[in-house]
Amino acid sequence: MIEITELRLSRNVDAPDRQSSGVIWINADGSSNMAQAIRLQQASPLKAACNQCSLSNLCLPLAIEENDLDRLEDIVQQGKIYNRGEHIFDQSTPVRSCFAVKSGSIKTSIITEGGEEQVTGFFMPGELVGLDSMSSETYACTARALERTSVCEFPVDKLEELTGKLPELQHHMYRMMSQEIQNSHQLAMLLSKNTAEERIAALLLSLSSRFRRRRMSATNFSLPMARNDIANFLGLAVETVSRVFTRFQNQGIIRARGREVELLDVDALQVVTRDFARQGQ
């Protein structure tokens, strides 16, 4: 039997059933036996996925040395898909995992004592959902997909065990939880002291910054959430949101068509939010 060549197949992270690599052996007569001819490397396919993921500079791998990355890959359950409206987890159910958004977007909300839904946040690719519940027995909110969404799941018990072994990962988790608390404080100030214009300008600037971190356009993007979700999140009426969008368009600050938004004058939006920014400092 004569070895002709080595075939390496790069793993497609969206097709987990493909083989990762192999060597093809062809007999001297030109025939081949694929069942016996392909020798598979014993490498974890998730390792390649984490290394190659465009969000690795935002997600948990950011905090881990390359030689420790396989420890994280051993616990992650990657690539689960949720269609629009499907629940990732529900409020008051037992906490089992936190989730990193790989593609798509997620909305979190709570049900108030009066039985009404209050939107509490929107999560983009590279961001983790469920951090606010890691120290609790049950989830503090409900998370559902705003569109077709892919997530990486990190079981809480395994993640806590791993953070005990990797101090840099533990520090990163503490920093992310601290950021969650700061975001909650800023939201409370935004909803209690600011005008409708300031609230919507702050949201647009926040989305712009988050898209920029993902190396996407910071001035031309599609809103992942509907306007009724924006209104709920900002404590406004849907009609008020529409009026402010129209006012910003008439002033030449933005251009909006449906969920497509173009920021024409970022400086003007920053002027609108200057009081909020001063309070945040």
Automatic annotation (TrEMBL):
Which top-rank group of organisms is this from?
Answer: Bacteria
Report the GO molecular function annotations.
DNA binding; DNA-binding transcription factor activity
Alphabetized Pfam families for the sequence: cNMP_binding (PF00027), HTH_Crp_2 (PF13545)
InterPro entries documented for this protein: cNMP-bd_dom (IPR000595), cNMP-bd_dom_sf (IPR018490), Env_Response_Regulators (IPR050397), HTH_CRP (IPR012318), RmlC-like_jellyroll (IPR014710), Tscrpt_reg_HTH_Crp-type_CS (IPR018335), WH-like_DNA-bd_sf (IPR036388), WH_DNA-bd_sf (IPR036390)
Domain called Cyclic nucleotide-binding: residue spans: 60-130
Keyword terms, alphabetized: DNA-binding, Transcription, Transcription regulation
A cellular component term (GO) from this record?
cytosol
The name under which this protein is listed is CRP/FNR family transcriptional regulator
What organism does the UniProt record list as the source? Marinobacter persicus
Q: What is the lineage of its organism?
A: Bacteria, Pseudomonadati, Pseudomonadota, Gammaproteobacteria, Pseudomonadales
